[in-house]
Amino acid sequence: MKEKILNFLACPECGGMFDLKVAAMEDLEIKDGCLSCKNCGKAFPIKDFIPRFVDTDKYVDSFSFEWNKFYDVQMDILNNTDESEKTFLWKTGWKPEDMKGKLILDVGVGAGRFADVVSRWGGEVVGIDLSFAVEAAYKNIGQRDNVHIIQADIFHLPFRKETFNLAYSIGVLHHTPDTKKAFQSVVPFLKKGGEFAVFIYGYGHYHYFSDIWRKITTKLPIRLMYLLSSVAVPLYYIHNIPFFGKAAQFLLPTANWPDRRWRWLDTFDWYTPKYQWKHTWPEVFKWYKEERFTNIELYDIDKESSLCQICMRGKKN
């Protein structure tokens, strides 16, 4: 943990400021220590360079497994690609010049895929995640001067109000117990005039059979699902057979990326999370309006997969 993070941290219980106790330092970072609230006395550990505001991954244990197992798959810097950069561009509408000199909140940092993009574009990014994916994120990008990784609950964020210039959550809010409340939980920590971009699953015929399969797969052991999800690797070739392939893909949807590890990862990601809500764009638009956002924009959907993807951004009034 970098000590400068104290400039925007606050107790998630009462909003108080912290006293810092350092137990171990390494390469100018705090490896182990404790944050104690000056107001209520609540203490939170710093363990392996990461402030921990939760002691369990609750309902996101599949993501803890996923991102530590597939920690390198979607990282542009580790694969010599620009796939994540392009994805960030079309899902948020932001460009590199929008990041420079800004303090940005990544809600659901995972292994650090998009926080990597933001930090390379010149933003100072704070990545939070409820899961132990934070360990993969720190491993990938946590030692950069403009990156901070925190394990925290979206419903009890450990920040001072109106701290961030920008915030984004790509593919995360719908994996919480309540998508709308998760959206609302972020808003108080965004500065007036700041922007919030989200990507949320929408309804589509693509989901029909996968939702049926999920009634089974979400009850299976995570390690078993890790093995079963590997079926996406050979199914790619079957799903690309004309006519027959499309029917097979509809009945047993799997990720269809050319890269075999992306197929495996995305298929595991689809079938294992406890929560996977779908919404409509008017519904998400209403959330922005209720929080008094302006300049609300709806971005395109992924027509290739027929999966309706709601990409929306607005400015806090």
Characterise the protein shown here.
With 317 residues, the protein is of the alpha/beta class. It folds into three domains: 1-52, no CATH class; 54-202 and 278-316, Rossmann fold (3-Layer(aba) Sandwich); 207-271, no CATH class. Helix content is 34%, strand content 23%. It is built from 13 helices and eleven strands. It has helices spanning 61-69, 76-79, 83-92, 96-99, 113-120, 133-141, 179-186, 207-217, 222-228, 232-239, 244-251, 260-271, 281-290; strands at 18-26, 29-37, 43-47, 50-51, 103-107, 124-129, 147-151, 164-170, 190-201, 293-298, 309-316. Strands 7-6-5-8-9-11-10 form a seven-stranded mixed β-sheet, sandwiched between helices. A four-stranded antiparallel β-sheet has the order 1-2-3-4. It is globular, with a radius of gyration of 20 Å. The model has no long low-confidence stretch (mean pLDDT 94).
Strand order of the largest sheet: 7-6-5-8-9-11-10
Quick one: overall form?
Answer: globular
- Under CATH, the topology of the largest domain can be stated as Rossmann fold
The number of domains:
3
**Could you give me the name of the CATH homologous superfamily of the largest domain?**
Vaccinia Virus protein VP39
Q: How many E strands?
A: 11
Oligomerization status of the protein chains: single chain
* Largest β sheet strand count, sense and barrel closure: 7 strands, mixed
Q: What is the CA-based Rg, rounded?
A: 20 Å
Q: Which CATH class of the largest domain?
A: Alpha Beta
Determine the number of helices (DSSP H or I, runs of at least 4 residues). Answer: 13
Provide mean pLDDT, rounded.
Answer: 94
Cα end-to-end separation: 32 Å
The CATH architecture classification of the largest domain is 3-Layer(aba) Sandwich
The helical percent reads: 25-40%
Fraction in beta strands: 15-25%
Regions with little confidence, pLDDT below 50 for 5+ residues:
none
